[in-house]
Design a protein that fits this description.
Layout (H helix, E strand, L loop, with lengths): L2 H20 L8 H11 L4 E13 L8 E10 L8 E10 L2 E9 L4 E5 L2 E4 L2 H16 L16 E6 L3 E3 L2 E10 L1 H18 L10 H10 E11 L5 E11 L2 H4 L7 E11 L14 E2 H13 L22 H13 L5 H8 L4
Parallel strand pairs: 6-13
Antiparallel strand pairs: 1-2, 1-12, 2-3, 3-4, 4-5, 5-6, 7-9, 8-9, 9-10, 10-11, 11-12
Helix pairs in contact: 1-4, 4-5, 8-9
Length: about 350
């Protein structure tokens, strides 16, 4: 995936995750928008987080099966101006390959887990990240408003659906359409701020003309948000869309005709204690970088269609076999059916 596209894909995931964990301001409207406004304004102090990304593409033989990514584990806020603590596992399935990894942050230290070994993030990198977090904290803002983002601005035709239970909590379900132009305008801001926050080169912004092209190929974008009845905190949010490329654009996209994508974030055990500790031993992250460069030189990361299953990383990261069962279940489930998604997620435990 090219760097600009990867940046905007990651920004979409980050935006949805931040949307439901950091809170934001916004205008008020009907009952549905009032529920959303309350949910967006309530922060998530701690939780067990599950993020799922599912992408199906048509017209690409090497990507005939869906691409699935699952990120999950405990999260705990350490307060304004500080990096959060988390212990997340990552599973990827796509192009005939599966891959597992992990990330641990104590707020002051961070570790990447790969094939059962922890690699410590350099102290200089952590200092840069902590400085960026402190800068946001001292500005007095933890909200998406600090990024110039207003989710209620790209929500349209919101309506209250039947109540649903998510992670054992009774919730109000709000379904809505999405203004793609405003959404990608906000993604521009996320990418720009994220690049500048850590001193990295900022990816090129999407021009209004490019955003118009994106709007023309995306169809039926929807968002589903589940807000806790008692505390008003969001327990689940899901964004889904379909897209189709015009005939003249398919050749430029190597035959890609269209596809669909869903991104969902779910929070369980909101406000409950989460235990996150640094690993007892680790190696420098530079050793992992050398290892991955060596694998790339041998073609080990070259996107082969043959199956390459990384060993289970243990701990909180599901095994490759668990993830394959989960991916199959998720593929058959309705992405708006919270109960069905919960049954699939149980396969990861």
């Amino acid at each position: 995936m090219q760097a600009p596209r990867r940046a905007y894909f990651l920004a979409a995931v980050a935006l949805l995750t931040t949307l439901v964990s950091a809170g934001c301001g916004g205008g008020s409207g009907d009952k549905a928008k009032a529920l959303l406004k309350r949910g967006f304004s309530e922060s998530i102090p701690s939780a067990n987080v599950s993020v799922d990304v599912n992408v199906s593409l048509q017209g690409l033989p090497t990507l005939s099966q869906p691409i699935r990514v699952h990120i999950g584990g405990p999260y705990k806020s350490n307060g304004q101006g500080k990096l959060p603590s988390l212990e997340w596992g990552l599973n990827f399935s796509g192009a005939g390959q599966t891959f597992s990894a992990g990330l641990v942050s104590t707020g002051t230290q961070a570790f990447v887990k790969y094939q059962g070994t922890y690699y410590k993030v350099d102290d200089r990198i952590m200092a840069t990240l902590q400085q960026a977090a402190a800068s946001r904290g001292t500005s007095g803002s933890r909200s998406l408003k600090s990024f110039g983002i207003d989710p209620l601005g790209w929500i349209r035709d919101a309506s209250v659906q039947d109540d649903a239970t998510v992670a054992g909590v009774a919730t109000k379900h709000v379904a809505a359409g999405v203004d793609i132009g405003k959404l990608f305008g906000d993604l521009n801001k996320v990418v720009a701020r994220a690049g500048g926050a850590v001193g990295a080169a900022r990816p090129q912004q999407l021009t209004p003309a490019v955003i118009d092209q994106i709007k023309s190929v995306i169809h039926d974008p929807k968002v589903d948000v589940y807000v806790g009845k008692q505390d008003g905190r969001i327990r689940r949010a899901a964004l889904g869309l379909q897209f189709s490329l015009p005939q003249q654009a398919q050749a430029l996209a190597r035959g890609l005709k269209g596809g669909s994508m869903t991104i969902s974030v779910e929070f369980a055990g909101v406000g409950e204690p989460q235990t996150i500790t640094a690993p007892a031993s680790s190696k420098p992250l530079s050793e992992l970088a050398k290892q991955l460069r060596g694998l790339a030189g041998l073609g080990g990361l070259g996107g082969s269609s043959s199956s390459t299953t990384a060993p289970s990383t243990g701990g909180r990261t599901p095994s490759a076999q668990q993830f394959q069962r989960y991916a199959k279940c998720l593929g058959a489930a309705n992405p708006t059916d919270a109960a069905a998604i919960a049954r699939c997620r149980a396969l990861l435990k």
